[in-house]
Amino acid sequence: MQTLTKKQKQVFDFIDLYIRENGVSPTIDEIRKKLKLKAVSTIHEHINALKEKGYISKSDNLSRSIETNKENFKIIEIPIMGTIAAGYPIEAIEDRQDTISIINSSIKSPKDYYALRVQGDSMIEEGIFNGDIVIIKKQSVAENGQTVVAIIDDNEATLKKLYREKNKFRLEPRNQSMLPFYRKEVEIRGVVVQIISNPKIEEEIKIQKKTKHGFKTIDLFAGIGGIRMGFENAGFKTAFANDFDAPCKQTYDLNFKDSKLVVEDIRKLGIDDLPE
Asked: Which residues contact 55 (CB under 8 A, 6 or more apart)?
């Protein structure tokens, strides 16, 4: 089950307490007054979020019909102890900053766990993005291939995949553009057991998927190399090139009539200069 925001947890906690004390659920207006919110619509948003995440069930047309689904989960509080680098190592500083409420029926003893905010993008192919929160189980050993909190170079922390080699450790990122670290000594401070996505990042991804550029033909900016390959691979209709001599352009135009090549100094192009 998904985690709750701080406000969603406040709503859930009030509903749960109210039901235990009164035998029925509170009304939307009672929830609004308890949380000192002005808009009823805001409460509806929180209620809908709790339903979607599986924390409650509710009959749409009945008052006081909210029921908690506590038999399906266990809510626990995990301390957020700082930031962990998913990139270049940073100084390891344990400083309790906040707590996060999570659902995890497999966690028997919350004191054996802590959370860290992720900084960097070295683990994106593992589904761990900048701004995410990772839940860590405290332990000093790990199996090959586990994602660990590793302390290297005296007191620098990093989040990486751990692999043991003959006489050293390999700390491997999950980002093709980054190289692994090799160290003879590594201190393990825990293993990742859960990833909590940054809701802002999720929303940005949704926006990017929905957003379409306004251009119809200008899809590729390129030099001489790879222009035709770019057209074929991506179905582009128009390319702009800084440097392409006239005979080459003429040959291109004669042979590739399904696309258009424009040779200009692209720094001088304005929107009005673009072909329809």
From this structure: 1, 4, 12, 68, 69, 73
Active-site residue flag, 122: yes
Fold of 75-200: Umud Fragment, subunit A (2.10.109)
Span 34-78, pLDDT tens digits? 888 888 888 889 998 888 888 888 877 777 888 887 665 667 888
Catalytic residue among 25, 122, 161, 259: 122
The CATH classification of domain 6-72, taken from the options 3.40.50.1700, 1.10.10.10, 2.60.370.10, 3.30.950.10: 1.10.10.10
Give the list of residues 6+ apart from residue 92 with CB closer than 8 angstroms, or none. 151, 155, 156, 157, 189
Q: Which of 9, 25, 160, 161 is catalytic?
A: 160
> Are residues 56 and 66 in contact, defined by beta-carbon separation less than 8 angstroms?
yes
Contact of 7 with 43, CB cutoff 8 Å: no
Say if pTM beats, i.e. exceeds, 0.70: no
